[in-house]
Amino acid sequence: MQQFDIKLYQSTLKENWNTFLLESNQQTFLFQRGFMDYHSDRFQDFSLMIYNNGELTALLPANKVDHEIYSHQGLTYGGLIYKPNLKSKEVISILKSVLEYLSENGIKTLMIKELPFVFLDNQTNNPLAYLCFKLKAQLQRMDLHSTLELKFKRYNRSRKNGYKRGLKNNLTVRETDEFKSFWNEILIPNLDNKHDVKPVHSLDEIQLLKSRFPKQIRQFNVYHNDTIVAGTTIFETKYVAHSQYISGNEDKNTLGSLDFLHHYLLEEVFADKKYFNFGISNENNGQNINEGLQYWKEGYGAHSITQGFYKIETSKYKHLEDIYV
């Protein structure tokens, strides 16, 4: 079996890391160091760079906690990032080399989360679930993303009626580079009142990330008589518009603000995208689904795609040696 060389990421390799991502089998900007490093004070980075005869071939964005490696606790997505033309046999060898490297360096487990297939350039080249099966990995969690393939969008009666209420109430949608009003007047109060939590990103953090990724991070607000009543923060990639945050004030159902907003996004702003990802409706580490939230998302024609979270014992890397016959 082919053996790959593993190097621990260092800041001096930032340009190499970022350049490789542009050529890899994924198209989200979350793995760019400018995004990963915004919360470097909270996570001990343990990202790996995988080489074949001196040529960078794959990456593993990761952080370390005690004797465990996570890919990556500070990111929505994870997994091995590699060139889109790699054969399955090479991907198997890469994961085997990574696990062997981790085992030899005292790391007992690798906690790895999938990158949903809609974010892959080559959606047929992703054997991670099979490799986890071979490694007897434990499925720790499974989330469902509500994802709309835009050519199949279809509004149910509730979504149509919500849009009509928005028209009747003379709502307007504006894109803005300003996040303060949405964060402080809509998002933070909503999350605090309903779930007793705060946004994953603070106001300062989202403004910092916007400055680093001005074209990929976009804010759309809904106004009623020039007062903000709802909004969404979109992370835009080549094929996917992903809703990072969606929130409206207590009058959102009466005004139809969220339906009005998403009609505008789906019909005008992102009509040429392949997918619109509403994100997950899971709670309790994937064990439950917020029925009302999922129903609302599926009212646009969205359907479920899975994202698995696996626990792999690094000592089992030899399980990947006997696959081919």
Automatic annotation (TrEMBL):
Its EC number is 2.3.1.-. GO terms for molecular function: acyltransferase activity. Keywords: Acyltransferase, Transferase. SUPFAM superfamilies: Acyl-CoA N-acyltransferases (Nat). This is GNAT family N-acetyltransferase.
